[in-house]
Amino acid sequence: MQNTDVTIVGGGSAGLTLALLLARQQLRVVLVEKGPAPSLTDAAPDYQRVSALNMASRSLFQQLGIWPQLLAGAAAYTDMQVWEADSFAKIGFTAAEQQLEALGYICDNEHIRQLLFSQLQQCSNVQCYFDVAISQLKQGERDVMLQLDNSELILSQLLVGADGVNSFVRQQMQLPLTHWDYQHTAIVAKIRCAEPHQLTARQVFLPSGPLALLPLPDSNLCSIVWSAETNEAERLMALDDTAFVQALCAATQAVLGPVELCSQRQAFGLTMRYASRWQRGRVVLVADAAHSIHPLAGQGMNLGLMDVAALAQLIGAQQAAGEDIGANPMLRRYERWRKAEAQSMIVAMEAFKRGFTAKPPLAKLLRGLGLVATDRLPWLKQQLMAHALGLKGDLPELVKN
């Protein structure tokens, strides 16, 4: 039997980040992941799945010491263009308007995991179990017991569920979940464009859903995230590569010239999930285990990283005061704090989705007028971008500039 301070279930970016944060606080940490460990080879990122990191997430990774390596394999985009198909509606953002060097960074998801895991290898107070499943989870008044399928027993003061949208921890704790199907499927792929992307992130709102073109480090490579109504997504996935590329060029008005596919297409169903309770006893949820949102604004990764930064901050305060790091009042504070941020993001994403999928001509006209008006109001644009960039809001101390 192993005794530890905190057990983290889930070895994605959120779980690995939390493990590093707690290791820096000299806590004993065990991380359990049912999948394989990230590879520590020097192979270049393949950008099959990417995330847009904002300034708050950059600050977090700077604190953890992985930012220089992550930036070397990332695309720092300096401009953003958003428009609606067959409409005058458009808006643009630039880093110069915000007096920043970039609006965000497109990073390979697996590269983030690799760098975090590499850092964890240097922490003697962290033990990682990969390729193991949990056979039993029980908690008492003073600790949580985890039994792994390799017969290992782990006792900890606190257990954190960072195990994704289908969280085993959430299910075992019977934490109620609100969810609805967005009735959208996201198609992701990598494309090569005839014209350079000029470090500009682009998003076009189509009648069936948003399509994003995200710049990659190669000036002619982009990652696409095409979120479409499921029937339309199935039709697009059934096309051969030539027909799909033709549909893509038509949808974007060939804004980057002719394109070609550089990877297989992958499709992922989109569902909003929100746990109405994030903790029970000494068990608490973070990131996708607690909430998942539509990817149209690229905020999912950032939201989850702020969860773990907030939880680590509160745990650190408990530890510094000589208090129980699994105490219910502290976990409730975390839940109230991060629930408010998650709720705001869920509402905003749903408003965007519904607003841009409303088809009546009057709705289209109002969207156009709204975007053009916002584009001409510098103060309003700056306020919108400050929140999206992680420069405003109830942020953890660790990421405040």
Summarize the structure.
The chain is an alpha+beta fold. The protein is 35% helix and 30% strand.
- How many angstroms does the end-to-end distance come to? 42 Å
CATH topology: FAD/NAD(P)-binding domain
CATH classification class: Alpha Beta
The unreliable regions are 362-366
Q: Please give the count of helices.
A: 11
Bin the helical content. Answer: 25-40%
Instruction: Provide the residue-averaged pLDDT.
Output: 88
Q: Give a count of the beta strands, DSSP E runs of length 2 or more.
A: 20
Biggest β-sheet, characterized?
A: 9 strands, mixed
- Count the domains: 1
Cα-based radius of gyration, to the nearest Å = 22 Å
Please explain how this structure is put together.
With 401 residues, the chain is an alpha+beta fold. It has a single domain (2-179, 271-399), classed as FAD/NAD(P)-binding domain, CATH 3.50.50. It has eleven helices and 20 strands. Strands 5, 6, 12, 13, 14, 15, 16, 17 and 20 form a nine-stranded mixed β-sheet that branches. Strands 1, 2, 8, 9, 10, 11, 18 and 19 form an eight-stranded mixed β-sheet that branches. A three-stranded antiparallel β-sheet has the order 3-7-4. α1 (13-24) runs parallel beside α4 (109-120) and α1 (13-24) runs parallel beside α8. The longest helix is centred in the C-terminal third of the chain and has 30 residues, at 328-357. 43% of the residues are buried.
